[in-house]
Amino acid sequence: MLKKLLAALWFSLLLLAISALFWQNEFKYSLPTPIPQDYHRIALGSKIDLKCCITDSRPIFIHFFNPDCPCSRFNIPHVSGLIKKYGDRINFKIVVLNKEKNFTIEEIQEKFKAKIPVYFDQGIAKSCGVFSTPQAVLLDHSQNLYYRGNYNKTRYCTNADSNYAQMAIDSLLKQTKTPSFDALALRAYGCSLPKCTK
Questions:
Q1: In sequence order, which ranges of the chain are alpha helices (DSSP H)?
Q2: How far from chain centre, in Å, is Cα 188?
Q3: Are residues 66 and 21 in the same domain?
Q4: Cα–Cα distance for residue pair 120/130, rounded to 1 Å
Q5: What are residue 149's DSSP bridge partners?
Q6: How confident is the model at residue 56, as a pLDDT?
Q7: For site-directed labelling of 28, which of 16, 156, 169, 195 has its Cα 20 to 30 A away?
Q8: Of the candidates 166, 79, 45, 86, which has an alpha carbon nearest to the alpha carbon of residue 96?
Q9: pTM over 0.90
Q10: Which of 115, 185, 147 is nearest to 42 (CA)?
């Protein structure tokens, strides 16, 4: 009887540990990021004043990134692919949002295999209405907010039917009407600011 009780206890502890690991590494990142109490919503179409980021007349794509956020790390290859594909037509920027550690511009550029501007300014996130990482922001030629949201509904950005950020880029470049996106595109998922933890 004691052996059965100990085996059941051991199995229960093992199941609890597996559940905790699943929560820590998977499930909590599939939940929407809580909206901060002091959040000021920035509507699509709003003019975004980013004097720091203007270098030419191309549309601006800002990748909000935290090297410690698992969701941010998982989409590095996807963002790198967007930079390679559209870098001649879109002005890409990376904004690093992490108050806990210091990263150099070169370290971030190396992660993305791209020599693009890197900023460490939390104010850019606030100006764009971003409160989690990773998030994509696309501004049109006049610096109006064209898209703010997720890259894809899958963590690894592998679903071509929900390549939201790329769809927004294609739509802007073709100068068609802004595509309508579902809640998975526009509701923030990932790591919360300011510490970029879930």
A1: 2-25, 70-74, 76-86, 105-112, 122-128, 164-174, 183-186
A2: 8
A3: no
A4: 14
A5: 136
A6: 81
A7: 169
A8: 79
A9: no
A10: 147
3-state helix, strand, coil in the chain (%, to 5): 40, 15, 45
Provide the residue range defining the domain that includes 72: 51-192
Query: Do 63 and 136 touch, CB atoms closer than 8 A?
Result: yes
Residue 129, sorted as left (phi over 0), alpha (psi -120 to 50) or beta, turns out to be left
Give the N- to C-terminal CA distance of the chain in Å, as an integer: 43
Cα–Cα distance, 73 to 60 (Å, whole number):
22
CB atoms under 10 Å from CB of 104, counted, come to 11
* Largest distance between two CA atoms of the chain: 77
| Number of separate domains in the chain | 2
Same domain, 19 and 79: no
Q: Is residue 39 part of a domain?
A: no
> Does residue 36 sit within a domain?
no
Average pLDDT for runs of 10 along the chain of length 198: 73 64 52 82 90 81 93 91 96 91 93 95 93 94 93 76 92 84 84 67
- Give the CATH number for residue 123: 3.40.30.10
Give the HSE-up count for residue 135: Cα atoms under 13 Å, Cβ half-sphere.
Answer: 28
Of 42, 60, 43, 44, nearest in space to 52 by CA: 60
